[in-house]
Specification:
Layout (H helix, E strand, L loop, with lengths): L1 H9 L3 E7 L11 E8 L2 H13 L4 E3 L6 E3 L4 E8 L6 E4 L2 E5 L4 H10 L2 E2 L11 H6 L3 E2 L2 E2 L4 E7 L5 E5 L12 H4 L2 E8 L1 E2 L2 H18 L6 E4 L9 H7 L6 E2 L2 E3 L6 E4 L5 H19 L8 E3 L6
Length: 303
């Protein structure tokens, strides 16, 4: 790996070797990434992925690590984290332009301060704008697809292209990028003018609702399972009597059964075991097959 490190140094990219992903994911679990690279510009991202390709290594855009379960064996190759200009937010009329690394909460605050409505319901999602577009994140009846105008994408051949929202095959927790491997670099949202205080009040009300009903003080990845058609995952899990169920340090939240939380000292294997147990019991009780909403990546310890 020394040749790879030398190549990254020559490109003046900031990186850390054997970086523990438990420090970079909201579940607080996960083994080390061979290389954690800090990308502060579009050129940095392109350089990182080009270098990975040159050395035959996989590369993964980390985002904020909020909808992610990294296995205990860690990530081979590159985990790329966005910062600097890649996290910038700018308002242009009724458009809000945000780097893929910008937190969705920061974009929502910027919109509120500019008197622009549309992101309030999404303001409590603990992820980046790029990650939110990738999975068409949603909350309280609003999805990214409802407000997205266009994105800047990095294609697998290293070229850049802009794509309008309607070209991205946005559906429930799905986008075309999941199939194509394209990487979101910039997002543009079209919002609606509204009184700043009215927007702020809605954001406060939703934040209070989230604090009352979700385990926001414990490490989690948000809703662990997708919403099955005609059902709610949390309700099915609760009906199966699984609230509070633990495998090692991983626990079904006692506040909201749709959340799996790190109750202390959990490993990725604990979460995988708990998720399998929950899925098995819900299927047995209700006949509904749960699917993870959380992205599961990395290697087992035996790798």
């Amino acid at each position: 790996m020394q040749a790879v490190a030398d190549a990254l140094q020559k490109l003046a990219l900031t990186f850390e070797e054997n970086a523990p992903m438990a420090k970079h994911t909201t579940l607080r679990v996960g083994g080390p990434a061979d290389f954690l690279i800090e990308a502060k510009s579009v050129d940095d991202v392109r350089a990182a992925f080009r270098t990975a390709q040159a050395y035959g290594l996989p590369a993964f855009l980390l985002g904020s690590g909020s909808n992610l379960l990294v296995r205990d064996g860690g990530i081979r190759g590159f985990a790329v984290h966005l910062s600097g200009a890649m996290s910038a937010v700018e308002v242009q009329g009724t458009l809000l332009r945000a780097g893929a690394g910008a937190l969705l909460s920061a974009a929502a605050v910027a919109a509120q301060q500019a008197g622009l409505s549309g992101l309030e319901a999404l303001s409590g999602i603990p992820g980046t704008c790029g990650g939110a577009v990738y999975m068409n994140a949603g909350a309280y009846g609003t999805e990214i697809a409802d407000v997205l105008e266009e994105v800047l994408l990095l294609k697998k051949d290293g070229t850049l292209c802009r794509a309008r929202a309607e070209e991205l095959a946005l559906a429930y927790r799905h986008s075309r990028m999941m199939e194509t491997g394209e990487i979101v670099l910039e997002t543009v949202f079209r919002l609606v003018p509204q009184a700043r205080e009215s927007i702020a009040e809605k954001m406060r009300a939703l934040a209070m609702q989230r604090r009352e009903k979700q385990p926001v003080t414990m490490p989690s990845a948000g809703s662990f399972f997708k919403r099955p058609p005609g059902h709610f995952a949390g309700a099915l899990i609760e009906q199966a009597g699984l609230k509070g169920t633990r495998v090692g340090g991983a626990q079904v939240s006692t506040l909201h059964a749709g959340f799996l939380v790190n109750a202390g000292g959990a490993t990725a294997q604990d979460f995988l075991g708990l998720a399998a147990l929950v899925s098995e019991q819900v299927l047995k009780q209700s006949g509904v097959q749960l699917e993870p909403e959380v992205q599961i990546i990395g290697c087992d310890l035996s790798y």
